[in-house]
Every structure is written in structure tokens, then in C-alpha cells.
Design brief:
By secondary structure, this protein is of the alpha/beta class. Helix content is about 30%, strand content about 25%. The strands form three sheets. Strands 1, 11, 14, 15, 16, 17, 18, 19 and 20 form a nine-stranded mixed beta sheet that branches.
Length: about 400
């Protein structure tokens, strides 16, 4: 039974959540049906024995980890991938019991204790890390062997033991009673490139490492290598599992992969017009007056800015959609606001909805569009949206 204070807190939170939503100046919409559709479409690329890991690190690329994880599992994913221990704990606290792989590095006693307690599965990238885990687990009362995943470096030059030392690494881990090998994997550095030279080299190195183990009579329980791009481009890279991040969110890792599978965008970023005004020719707009009105103009102020995750470097370069029409953003984007040229759309009023990313009518703007203008990648755009933008799941 809830105490008086707990009841009071719960009522306040519900009131606050309702108020916060209805009063929002800006928000993110997550299309649950599109997310489910994408997972099912990607599963169709796989053989029946190949599992799909939904990568939900970085709050599911800004989409909301719990909602995405639950939806992906219902749609056919069987594993979840995160980067950190707290990300895994958050999923467990929400009631998710699917296997969760921590893709990042973990070393400290506190991290290892949490991994054991929350039944998470760590990546082991070096013999030293394996020994640290084994020693730490011996000090934890009642701990049973934990599943671990061996990471090999086949050319990414990030986490992992050199592929040529796979047999020594695996044999070391096999000899540690507190650890149980659940999989062996590596990560591809150039799977999204049309030039497959490096990807094929990494594939060959991974195969060589597995051959080393087979020669010693060691059979890996699970092998995985493919990310979204590799999953879309080459079935020989699928092995026992694929790890898909960007694809489940409805974006393609590269243009040449656009026809490999039909995906739907999941995320939309929206905001409201907060004021509409007329400025005269010669008026400067926003900090630094980087935009000077060439004639009398109607401008709309919109309640979203770089503190919400709209890159300031998009200033004077981006368009948004209002009433199904594209309009230009003008002046420097500020911390909480931006300005639009709405001269060609009569009657715009405060409170109207502006689509920054997503579709309105026949017009659509994607994270790839922003990334292209900024000479970056769509992953960075998606991960940049801040938590003061509430995520609204649309079913």
C-alpha cells in the first residue's frame, strides 16, 4: 500500500506529466507501427536460424530505449545491445528479460557486480579484462558463471583482441570457471562503403580466427559480425546473429543500400510557432545578424533550438515543413528558438505545428538530409536530441 507521501508524489507526477505534454513547445514522435514494421522487414533478410539483436544504446539512438526495446522484441528481435551497464539496468528495471549484451568496455568491481546482479552479458576485449572479471566474480557471494562475449579486432582498431590471437584468448577464458563463453564477434569498419575491399578483408580475418578455434576442437556457441549495412548487403556475413541499430529506426546506412529492404522512418521532430511578426527590409535576424531581410517579411518564431539538439551549424541552411510546405529557417539558431520565413504562407498563427524532421503532406525531411548538410552521419543527428524533448509513442 502506498504511503501518503508516495500517493502525493504519484499524483503530482501524473499531473506534471499531463501538464508537461499538453504545454510542450517541442517534442519527438515515435511511430511504433513503423518500428515494428522495420524489424519484421529486416528479419525477412535473415535465415530462420539467424537471430536479430536490436541495438538500443544511447537511448535507442534518441528514440527511447524502453519503448523501442519492447517493440523490437515483440516484432521478432531476440537480443538487445547496449553500450553501458546503466543502459542495461534501465531495461531490466522496466521488466525486460531478454538477453542484453553490453557492447562497451567494463572493468570496475561495481560494474561487474551490477552485471552479475542484473543478469547482463559483458563483452570481453582482452585477456586482462577476462582476468579482472574472473577475480571479481570470485569475491561475489553466490555468483554463478556469467555469459561473456569475446570481441576480436579484425580491422576496426577499437575494442577487441587481435584476430590472430583468438585461440589463446578463447582458451584463457575457457579456463576461468567464473566465465562462460556465449559468443565470439567482431565489428566491421566499412560495411556502408560501396568499396567492399576492407569488409572482405575483415570477413576473411574473422573466418581465419574461427578456423583456428575449430582446429583446436573449439566450437563457438554463437558468431556475429554484421551491423545494419552488412546485414543489408551480404548474407554471408549474417552468421548466427546480426546486430542492427540504424536500420530498425528506418534509416539506411548509405544510399546504395536504399533498395535492399523497405523501411519506414520512425522518428519525427516537431515544435510550435510561438510568435509571428512582420519585419522590414534591412532588418537583421537573430544573433550576429547573419540574415538581413531583403524585403518586408513575415517571420515565425519557433520554440526549439540547439539546446534541444538542432545543430547551430544548420543556421541559414535548413528547411522545415509547415502546412505541408517547405519554408526556410533564417538567422542563427539560438539555444531555445529559431526563426522561419513564412512570407509565402498567409495566416500563420502562434501554436501551429512545425515539422523539423518527418513528413507533413507530400514533403519529408530526414536525419540524412541534415547529416548531408553538416558533412556528418545520421547516427549523430539522431543521438543529439536532448531529453527535454519528450518522446511521444504513437500507436
Amino acid at each position: 500500500m502506498l504511503s501518503h507521501q508516495e500517493t502525493k508524489n504519484s499524483a503530482f507526477q501524473k499531473h506534471y506529466d499531463n501538464y508537461a505534454w499538453c504545454s510542450q513547445r517541442a517534442w519527438i514522435e515515435i511511430d511504433i507501427a513503423a518500428l515494428s514494421y522495420n524489424v519484421k522487414q529486416l528479419r525477412q533478410l535473415l535465415s530462420p536460424h539467424t537471430q536479430l539483436m536490436a541495438v538500443v544504446k544511447a537511448d535507442a539512438y534518441g528514440h527511447g530505449a524502453i519503448t523501442v526495446a519492447q517493440t523490437a522484441l515483440e516484432a521478432g528481435a531476440s537480443w538487445l545491445g547496449v553500450a553501458t551497464v546503466p543502459e542495461g539496468m534501465q531495461l531490466r528495471e522496466s521488466g525486460i528479460d531478454a538477453p542484453i549484451l553490453i557492447l562497451g568496455a567494463t572493468h570496475t568491481l561495481e560494474q561487474i557486480q551490477a552485471i552479475a546482479e542484473w543478469q547482463l552479458q559483458p563483452t570481453l576485449s582482452s585477456p586482462q579484462q577476462a582476468l579482472i572479471f574472473s577475480t571479481a566474480l570470485e569475491t561475489i557471494k553466490g555468483s554463478s558463471p556469467i555469459p561473456v562475449h569475446i570481441k576480436l579486432d579484425t580491422g576496426m582498431s577499437r575494442l577487441g583482441t587481435h584476430w590472430g590471437q583468438a585461440s589463446e584468448f578463447v582458451q584463457l577464458v575457457q579456463g576461468l570457471p567464473q566465465l562462460q563463453i556465449a559468443s565470439i564477434y567482431s565489428h566491421l569498419a566499412t560495411a556502408d562503403s560501396e568499396d567492399t575491399t576492407v569488409m572482405k578483408q575483415q570477413h576473411a580475418r574473422f573466418e581465419s580466427a574461427i578456423a583456428q578455434l575449430k582446429a583446436l576442437g573449439i566450437a563457438a556457441p554463437c558468431l556475429h559480425l554484421a551491423n545494419s549495412a552488412a546485414t543489408m548487403s551480404d548474407r554471408s556475413l549474417h552468421y548466427d546473429m546480426v546486430r542492427i541499430g540504424l536500420g530498425i529506426y528506418g534509416l539506411y546506412p548509405a544510399p546504395h543500400l536504399n533498395d535492399t529492404v523497405n523501411l519506414r522512418s520512425v522518428l519525427q521532430v516537431k515544435a510550435r510557432v510561438t510568435q509571428v511578426k512582420t519585419i522590414t527590409a534591412g532588418s537583421g535576424v537573430s544573433y550576429g545578424h547573419t540574415f538581413i531581410a531583403p524585403n518586408n517579411m513575415r517571420i515565425a518564431v519557433v520554440g526549439i533550438g540547439y539546446a534541444d539538439g538542432v545543430p547551430r551549424n544548420l543556421s541559414n541552411k535548413m528547411q522545415v515543413i509547415i502546412r505541408g510546405q517547405r519554408v526556410a529557417q533564417i538567422g542563427n539558431i539560438t539555444m531555445d528558438q529559431m526563426m522561419l520565413d513564412v512570407s509565402n504562407i498567409p495566416g500563420i498563427q502562434a501554436g501551429e505545428v512545425v515539422t523539423l524532421l518527418g513528413k507533413d503532406g507530400e514533403e519529408e525531411i530526414s536525419a540524412n538530409d541534415w547529416a548531408e548538410k553538416l558533412n556528418t552521419i545520421s547516427w549523430e543527428i539522431l543521438c543529439g536530441f536532448k531529453h527535454r524533448l519528450p518522446r511521444l509513442a504513437l500507436t
